[in-house]
Amino acid sequence: MERTFVMVKPDGVRRGLVGEILGRFERKGFRLVGLRMLRIGRELAEAHYAEHREKPFFQGLVEFITSGPVVAFVLEGPNAIAEVRKMMGATHPKDALPGTIRGDFATTIDENVIHGSASPEDAAREIALFFREEELL
Ligand code: CMP
């Protein structure tokens, strides 16, 4: 059993894709163990994306992720980290296959609708950034 952190980004919330995205994961069989809607502040954005701090797209990424509400959630299930990444599709929507979330709903790498943890270490760090232990049921 594994837990992963997932976030519908501001473009996904703005476009009304939250239900569709949550539904896909629920229908797949993952268990929703935590859920929050929030507007991310600059400090949390910089902590969440710390690994990209030196990248040329970092400032744009922080601007975008703080531009409107996001929906953050934690899913639990067998191989949740890799399975969720598979269902999300490739980071760049041009490489994401039809049937994946980015393949079906995104066209650009900047506004690619969804984030999911890349590794067990990232999942633990990201879950702790967004949720207190007692918020995970
Ligand atoms: P995400 O999985 O949230 O992790 C970092 C994000 O940076 C990524 O999705 C993209 O939306 C965004 N990004 C913007 N430009 C790039 C790029 N050139 N390479 C990788 N990620 C990028």
Automatic annotation (TrEMBL):
Residue positions binding ATP: K9, F57, R85, T91, R102, N112
Protein function: Major role in the synthesis of nucleoside triphosphates other than ATP. The ATP gamma phosphate is transferred to the NDP beta phosphate via a ping-pong mechanism, using a phosphorylated active-site intermediate.
Any one Gene Ontology cellular component term annotated for this protein: cytoplasm
EC number assigned by the record: 2.7.4.6
Protein family (similarity comment): Belongs to the NDK family.
NCBIfam families: PRK00668.1
Any one Pfam family match given in the protein's UniProt record, by short name: NDK
Signal peptide boundaries: none
Taxonomic superkingdom: Bacteria
Cofactors demanded by this protein: Mg(2+)
Name assigned to this protein: Nucleoside diphosphate kinase
UniProt keyword list: ATP-binding, Cytoplasm, Kinase, Magnesium, Metal-binding, Nucleotide metabolism, Nucleotide-binding, Phosphoprotein, Transferase
Domain spans labelled Nucleoside diphosphate kinase-like: 1-137
Catalyses which reaction(s): a 2'-deoxyribonucleoside 5'-diphosphate + ATP = a 2'-deoxyribonucleoside 5'-triphosphate + ADP; a ribonucleoside 5'-diphosphate + ATP = a ribonucleoside 5'-triphosphate + ADP
GO molecular function: ATP binding; metal ion binding; nucleoside diphosphate kinase activity
Gene3D superfamilies, A to Z: Nucleoside diphosphate kinase-like domain
Subcellular location: Cytoplasm
Active site annotation, chain numbering: H115 (pros-phosphohistidine intermediate)
Major location (coarse): cytoplasm
Gene field: ndk
BP-aspect Gene Ontology terms: CTP biosynthetic process; GTP biosynthetic process; UTP biosynthetic process
Subunit structure: Homotetramer.
